[in-house]
Amino acid sequence: xxxxxxxxxxxxxxxxxxxxxxxxxxxxxxxxxxxxxxxxxxxxxxxxxxxxxxxxxxxxxxxxxxxxxxxxxxxxxxxxxxxxxxxxxxxxxxxxxxxxxxxxxxxxxxxxxxxxxxxxxxxxxxxxxxxxxxxxxxxxxxxxxxxxxxxxxxxxxxxxxxxxxxxxxxxxxxxxxxxxxxxxxxxxxxxxxxxxxxxxxxxxxxxxxxxxxxxxxxxxxxxxxxxxxxx
Length: 231
What we know:
By secondary structure, the protein is of the alpha/beta class. It has 2 domains: 72 residues; 139 residues. Helices cover 33% and strands 27% of the residues. A 5-stranded mixed barrel has the order 2-3-4-6-5. Helix 1 packs antiparallel against helix 3.
């Protein structure tokens, strides 16, 4: 009788060890996700608190200064403007307005001019504040281009005649690898009514999930011991 049970006992032990290993791997994965997220949040909070600097002083290494406020001079190109869809503000559907900006040194990048409410229906363009003509000074948070939404984002042209599909701001217009969330400017019309939202600076449930996976591993061990005692 015992000989017949030995293969099953080995199989049960093997399955238990496999489950424990999977639980430990999942716990480690959640732990590292929590550590990375905490580090990211800390970096954002620290950079937001820094004083405003000139864009020229940080543009060569934007990844090291992302989220810090920068200022620069140049002019908007209102003929190059896109609206990022699926943007919400206090539960209201709308768009974020991105307009091309050219600095006095010749660099081109997108400026996120904040959120606007969608039109009354799908064929009605939202009301977007016109950009000033001529040279202006702007101040905003430096953002990496990798932060821009990818995939299916579309744009409404300024004349509101319809949708144009999948405008790739980087490759098509050869802009810089960063953009700016506009906060204010030398003209009052540049201050967005609703600025681009900051990410949720929460560490999330990753550490709790890591402990949960360790608890599951403990349950597997306890369950295997109970099975052996029952035998």
